[in-house]
Amino acid sequence: MASIPRLEINDFLPRFQLLNQHGRVSDLFRHALGKPILLAVLRGTPGPAESELLRGFAAEAERLAPLAHLMMISDRPAAETAQLAADFGFDFPVMSDEAGQMTALLPQDALPPPVALCFLLTDANRRVLEILPSAGGVEVLASLAAKLTAAAAGPAEIVRPLAPVLYLPRVLDPAQCRSLIELYHSGGNTPTGIKRSTDEQLGGFQNKDVKIRRDHVITDPARARALGDIVGKRVVPEIFKAFSFRVKYVKEFKIGRYGADDKGFFRPHRDNYGERGGRRFAMSLNLNSEDYEGGNLTFPEYGPALYRPGSGDAVVFSCYLVHEALPVTRGARYVLLTFFYGEEGEGDGGQGGPPPQT
Question: CA of 70: how far to CAs of 73, 86, 148, in Å?
Fold first, then answer.
């Protein structure tokens, strides 16, 4: 497992390959197949408190197994880990991480030395929802069981035809969303237009019959780098998984505002018309979904469905898809926007029609 920063809530649980109690390799990517993950992480040899909680985990395993993939990682050698699994009767993967790769990824307060146990809960897509130290005792397990039961409640829905877009929840947290809206107002903003030629600067051609939006381009290096780090670990891997596309670089970030005061909108358009256009995927991340009406995204080639990501949620889609931002009728919609590119130097191609609108 490559060295990466410590895990935070909403990060993806990294893919690990570790020896389990049977001497075989357990691979997270192969083992986690569409259910939440409940992972216990143990550092050191369990004492009385940790042992009590592990016995509770074993007792709950049969009830929780239909709701989540259960796993455990210990930093003990393989032989000790196998004995641990046998002592507590765990029949789910219990893995040896003698190098301490997983414990090094956890927040420092999750596993206070010298002996500690914590639990990680993820959603079905390996996004970390909770990191709970064992200090709460058996109530920790009760809380996790309640969350898993609630998440599993209700029948599955049959959906109508949908556009081939990727919906990513919780890319940014509420504080990050508010901070970007504040930056939009404090940092200045300008009306943006559309391109008439591939080398024309953004905003060079205003056409209020096509687009009404004001943008703030994020130029502060620290802010751009922080956003790039978040997108790099929460969005880019999902683009590869969903579309088998390797992002080579990310366009600048901009904060857009569609306001009801001028009925902000962007008529149906494509962001890329050429066969080998540099822009390959677009990201639209809502910053304040609860504060406006109208302003939904639609992909008319694939039906009338309306897309309205929650605050902090993003949709990612191919720049070849026709899409539209409908007029805002109340309040103002703030959105973080960027494009993802493939091989540098591909350009916009000029292969298949007029240049893209931005």
Answer: 11, 16, 12
Neighbours of 52 (CB within 10 A): 14
State pTM to two decimals.
0.84
The one-letter code for the residue type at 115 is V
Which residues contact residue 297 at a Cβ distance below 8 angstroms, ignoring those fewer than 6 apart? 284, 306, 307, 308, 315, 323, 324, 325, 326
Domains and CATH numbers, the chain: 17-152 (3.40.30.10), 166-341 (2.60.120.620)
Which residue has 């292969």 as its token pair? 351
Q: What are phi and psi of 53, to 5 degrees?
A: -70, -35
How many residues would you count in the chain? 358
pLDDT tens for the chain, 358 residues: list them: 445 678 999 999 998 899 999 999 999 888 888 899 999 999 999 999 899 999 999 999 999 999 999 999 999 999 999 999 999 999 999 999 999 988 889 988 888 877 889 999 999 999 999 999 887 778 888 889 898 988 887 777 887 889 999 999 999 999 999 999 999 999 999 998 665 444 444 445 566 788 999 999 999 999 999 999 999 999 999 999 999 999 999 999 999 999 999 889 999 999 987 655 578 999 999 999 999 999 999 999 999 999 999 999 999 999 999 999 999 999 999 999 999 998 754 433 333 333 333 3
Question: What is the C-alpha to C-alpha distance for residues 274 and 110, in angstroms, rounded to an integer?
Answer: 50
What is the C-alpha to C-alpha distance for residues 312 and 52, in angstroms, rounded to an integer? 38
Report the C-alpha gap between 23 and 96 in whole angstroms. 10
